[in-house]
Amino acid sequence: MSLINYASREINCKIVYYGPGLGGKTTNIKYVYKQIDADARGKLVSLATETDRTLFFDFLPLDLGQVQGFTTRFHLYTVPGQVHYDASRRLILKGADGIIFVADSQKERLQDNIDSFKNLRVNLKSQSIEPDSIPLVIQYNKMDLPNVMSAEALDEKINDKGYLSFESIAIEGVGVFDTLRAISKLVLKSISEGR
Amino acid sequence: MNKGGMVIPEEGFSEINEVLDNLLERSSSECAFLVDKSGQLISMRGDMDKVDSAAFASLSAGNFAATSELAKLIGEEEFSVLFHEGDTESIHISIVARNIIMVIVFRTDETSLGLVRLEMKKTIKELIKLFKDLNEKSKKEKGKKQFNDSFTKSLDDEIDNLFKDKG
């Protein structure tokens, strides 16, 4: 939930990385953490299992700095992608202002992507967030692998609503900031219009 | 933005901080946080320089949310109070309003759980009233265009600036 605090002159927004397990959500957030200057980001919190699978969430606050006296922050969260962690995913979506859906572009993961996208819409509704009005962008990840679908083919299967989509190789950082930049702008536009 | 976005107006906020300051003094606690259930920090009072407040708020909300789900599994709506006891520092979490939780950090050798709970209850009554007033003011702000075009453009530029040359 965005928080606009006129008393402390702060704007905080929540962006959630969603998608099937092992799709690269945590890889995205770790890359952002590595690349952003230390004074513009907070601590990276990861609630993960011993084998580095996300158990509850990853959290990274980013500081945009001051604009006209207001400090603006983005709080980035990932959800656990594994199917059986649905209760946790619902909790993380609470108050989300924008979603980055990270799809695994490998052919054999298509059904997982479709299922996860449907699950996202169901879980948004459970948090009283209208799926068709929340800012959302899609990232087609792992585009360096040999057995991937094309972005056009993925758009056809997953993106029938025509969301902005980006190809990525998150582990190398390709497309990570393009995606984050796009959702950040959509979220701020949405907030500034009072939606 | 979803319609639940919170707008905190300038007036009324200082009273909330004053209530938190009084709580800290009366209960001899170190620090008090107000956090919304999605993990956003609303206010923090007291001395917690060494703690990352954004991470603290996010984890507190996550903690509260996970415990509420546990409550539902055994037929409770939610647990209204959580308590984590450490050797020297302890944390007390309680629900203030539908979407807001209060987290109190205290040293176990400087105060007692009983005193913290007693003062917490008094404080919650005061906060509920203040947030009710704040909500009324906040409702008037919702749905309005919050910022002018030059502000939105400046934020856009800041995003480009933060992410420039980052691949």
UniProtKB/TrEMBL annotation, chain A:
Keywords: GTP-binding, Nucleotide-binding. It comes from Candidatus Mcinerneyibacterium aminivorans. InterPro entries: Gliding_Motility_GTPase, P-loop_NTPase, Small_GTPase_ARF/SAR. This is Gliding-motility protein MglA. One of its GO terms (molecular function) is GTPase activity.
UniProtKB/TrEMBL annotation, chain B:
SMART domains: Robl_LC7. One of its GO terms (molecular function) is guanyl-nucleotide exchange factor activity. Residues 16-106 form the Roadblock/LAMTOR2 domain. GO terms for biological process: positive regulation of TOR signaling. Coiled coil: none annotated. Pfam families: Robl_LC7 (PF03259). This is Roadblock/LC7 domain-containing protein. It comes from Candidatus Mcinerneyibacterium aminivorans.
